[in-house]
Amino acid sequence: MRMSLAQRVLLTWLFTLLFLIMLVLKLDEKAPWNWFLIFIPVWIFDTILLVMLIVKMAGRCKSGFDPRNGSQNMKKKVWYLIAMLLKLAFCLALCAKLQRFTTMKLAYVFIPLWALLLGAMVELGYNIFYVRRD
């Protein structure tokens, strides 16, 4: 089952809109919800992406798959998996801090986000400046 680009954009827009509406209601103190409930649309969207990524990675385990054809592709998928897990760690730490479940410093809460941004900058630099030598 494949989703078209329009369907993916619509799904992304829908989950973002739902998250922002819930966030505004929480910040305006119209809804006394838990911060973990506010982030549910983000986590549902991330779960969908993680499942799709894991299914694509598991497709390499099929019989008859030549591993030499997609080593770069597999490295990219592993980076996407790490990025998703870092984003999940940041969201969980942020919700725990906002809900006052922990007395962790805010700088520690942002460590996963900083690692994600640093990794994204390294990947961007690699994709821009890497010259293949065949």
Q: Strand percentage, roughly?
A: under 5%
Ends: how far apart? 36 Å
Radius of gyration: 18 Å
What's the number of domains? Answer: 1
Helix and strand sequence:
HHHHHH
Largest sheet: none
Number of DSSP helical runs: 6
What does this molecule look like?
The chain is an all-alpha fold and 134 residues long. The protein has one domain. Helices cover 72% and strands 0% of the residues. The chain contains 6 helices and no strands. The two termini are 36 Å apart. The mean pLDDT is 87.
Descriptive keywords:
single chain; 134 residues; mainly alpha
Question: How are the elements arranged and paired?
Answer:
Layout: H1 5-27, H2 35-38, H3 40-58, H4 71-98, H5 106-109, H6 111-129
Helix pairs in contact: 1-3, 3-4, 4-6
Keywords: Membrane, Transmembrane, Transmembrane helix
Transmembrane segments: 36-58, 78-100, 106-129
Pfam family, one: Tmemb_185A
Short description:
The chain is mainly α and 134 residues long. It is 72% helix and 0% strand. The protein contains six helices and no strands.
